[in-house]
Amino acid sequence: MDRKTTYEELEQKAKELKNKSHERDRQEEEVDKIFNFSLDMIGSGNLDGYFTKINSSFRSILGYTEKEFLEKPFIFFVHDEDIEKTKEALAEAVKGKQNIYIENRYKCKDSSYKWIGWKVFSIEQENKFIAVGRDITERKRTEETLQASEERYRALFDQMRGGVAIYRAENDGEDFVFVDFNKSAERIENIRREDIIGKSVQIMFPSVKDFGLFDVFKRVWKTGKSENFPITRYKDERISGWRDNFVYKLPSGEIVVVYSDETERKLAEEALHDSQHMLHTVLDSIPTAVFW
User: Hey, which bits of the chain come out as E strands?
Assistant: First the structure.
């Protein structure tokens, strides 16, 4: 026969249950502190597309009251251009994917938009998710500004009439590798940019050392002092013609060569010189006096 539980044992069990309840309450209070004092947006919701609980950062960042935000599906606040990828992320959560990252724009109460980077954790068996969102608006603006700057640089770079080649030093300046090459350089050298990027200048232009330009590369890279390399006749299996070069070093350590193709001018000068020489030869060979 089972022994009857004594009053003292019941009292002890009641104390243990009370202590567990207090510990659970304490843990919930700690969670609430983390939840509400976090600078990041933290919310939980259901896989039907609604947030069911949000922290204070949601309200401070987006400007809505908790009621205003929770009464509508969260897709309602997403920028039109980001709706499709947001739906795709929700579909992945419904399928049980545990760790999802997405960036989208949320409409604020003042009608502006903020970029939010989300980490979403799905709890499929409970039809729930937990989402942690960070305001990345400034980062996205910086990225957009940088992208616009790069696009302007590329447009200017490619529209320059002179050739521009950028090199990275390797093996302590014993070799130089193509980093960039503009459209004028492609036209002058009759070679495509994609065919030379990442390749050694010595491989692509085997006679570069013979021209003397390679030594200029090394000096400029070591000293940081720019050099104007005078018009020089280049001639090998890839290059034929005259180039006027200006070489300088970027703060990043890369070497830039800005150059023009002087071939037509030099050929015209040579033709003129030959014509004048022929004329003088003819005049000198005439036995009678000739006055000009």
Answer: 41-46, 50-54, 99-107, 113-123, 128-135, 163-170, 175-181, 227-235, 240-249, 255-261
Report residue 71 as tokens.
């009464």
Name the helix (H) or strand (E) containing 251.
none
From CA 283, how far away is CA 292, in angstroms rounded?
Answer: 10
Query: Could you give the CA distance from residue 185 to residue 173 in angstroms, rounded to a whole number?
Result: 23
- Residue 205 DSSP class: S
82 closest CA partner among 98, 109, 67, 102: 102
Q: Where are the beta strands (DSSP E) in 55-189?
A: 99-107, 113-123, 128-135, 163-170, 175-181
Closest by CA position to 131, among listed 167, 185, 77: 77
pLDDT tens digit sequence for 41-87: 988 889 888 999 899 899 999 999 999 999 999 999 999 999 999 99
Strands 99-107 and 41-46 come out as unpaired
Beta carbons of 196 and 205 less than 8 angstroms apart: no
Query: How far is 10 from 210, CA to CA, in rounded Å?
Result: 100
Compute the distance between CA of residue 106 and CA of residue 99 in angstroms, rounded to an integer: 21
CB 42 within 8 A of CB 131: yes
Query: Quick check: pTM over 0.90?
Result: no
Rounded to whole angstroms, the Cα distance separating 45 from 119 reads: 13
Q: Are 55 and 32 a contacting pair, CB within 8 Å?
A: no
Long-range contacts of residues 47-51, Cβ cutoff 8 Å, at least 24 apart: 47/90, 47/93, 47/94, 47/122, 47/124, 47/127, 47/128, 47/129, 48/73, 48/127, 49/73, 49/74, 49/75, 49/90, 50/74, 51/131
